[in-house]
Specification:
By secondary structure, the protein is mostly beta strands. Helix content is about 0%, strand content about 45%. The strands form two sheets. It has a four-stranded antiparallel β-sheet with strand order 1-2-3-4, with no helix packed on it. The chain is globular and about 45 Å long.
Length: about 100
């Protein structure tokens, strides 16, 4: 990537026109996509296979990242919450919500 050349082109199996949050795993094998449908999806970059759908936010996703170990993901949403997810199970591990 230092030369600015495309190394991988990933064809998303879903419409990403309203996706605002993207994160690539450190090893380059998975990508997380967060969108205004309030879901985050984790895909295998080589196959395009959906690995996990992360459900729990009630507002558009504005941030998404895969943590260095690749086993957990972090998402941030317009609903005022930040959530940690277990990618293998798709289950929420922890939620941080803004104080009202």
């Amino acid at each position: 990537m230092a030369d600015g050349q495309e190394t991988v082109r990933f064809e998303f199996p879903v419409n990403v026109n309203n996706s605002w949050a993207f994160g690539l795993a450190r090893d380059g094998q998975r990508v997380i996509v967060g969108s205004d449908d309030v879901l985050a999806r984790v895909y295998d970059v080589k196959t395009g296979k959906l690995i996990a759908t992360l459900r729990g936010h009630t507002g558009s996703l504005w941030g998404a990242a895969l943590l260095p170990d690749g086993k957990q993901a972090l998402t941030g949403s317009g609903d005022g919450s930040l959530r940690v997810w277990d990618v293998a199970s798709g289950q929420q591990v922890r939620a941080f919500k803004k104080k009202t």
